[in-house]
Design goal:
By secondary structure, the chain is of the alpha+beta class. It is 24% helix and 22% strand. The strands form 3 sheets. Strands 3-4-5-6-7-8 form a 6-stranded mixed β-sheet, sandwiched between helices.
């Protein structure tokens, strides 16, 4: 019969110190503009640090960004596709995210806010039309949990988590409690677009 032993004096498990809460400005101070990696982000006060990704990760990022850019130019004039580095905070002092790929309102460009040399221009972005993260082993938890919850809370209509190793895309909307897993193609039909955006995952992950 198994018995439970009381822990010996002096060997009680130590309590973990509370995780430090960061501000977005503190995280911005960590960024070295001469080096794109590691990437520093702040998610509701939590510091997220990711190392340089694999080359295939970057290939997927560029393919998706190019496809979205072509689509917006041809069929969805209100949106403009962009890639990080970025500084998306929605005006919050405890958040700054860098989506791999995202679509922002083109009006931000017309107003010149994305051409500022400081972070002031980025802070004008209070809404994303779409966000996408390409999974890496070092970023999977961040992308599926920390960042996903923020995209949902900020009302991003569609958030894609792209798992190129598994060949699938996890699709999130603001109200979703579970991801919808797509195995064939990405589809996005924003309000005002003449036709939907479609991209076969076999082509994206080839």
């Amino acid at each position: 019969m198994a018995t439970t032993q009381e822990p010996r004096a002096g060997r009680l498990p130590a309590e973990r110190p509370p995780e430090r809460m960061w501000t977005a400005d503190e995280v911005r101070e960590l960024v070295d503009e001469r080096r794109p990696w590691p990437r520093f982000e702040c998610a509701r006060g939590r510091l997220l640090v990711t190392p340089a990704p694999k080359d295939l990760h970057q290939i997927v990022v560029l393919r998706l960004a190019q496809a979205l850019a072509n689509y917006c130019d041809a069929h969805f004039e209100p949106g403009v596709a962009m890639v990080s580095p970025a500084d998306i905070s929605w005006g919050h002092r405890d958040t700054t995210l860098q989506p791999d790929v995202y679509v922002a309102p083109r009006t931000m460009l017309r107003a010149g806010t994305l051409h500022e040399s400081s972070t002031a221009g980025w802070r004008e972005i209070r809404h994303l039309l779409l966000a996408a993260e390409v999974l890496s082993p070092s970023s999977a938890t961040y992308d599926r949990e920390d960042k996903r919850l923020i995209y949902q809370a900020e009302g991003t209509p569609v958030y894609w988590v792209l798992d190129w190793r598994a060949g699938v895309a996890e699709v999130w909307t603001p109200e979703a409690t579970e991801a919808r897993v797509e195995r064939e193609r990405l589809v996005w039909h924003p309000d005002g677009a003449s036709v939907p955006f479609e991209l076969a995952l076999a082509h994206l992950f080839r």
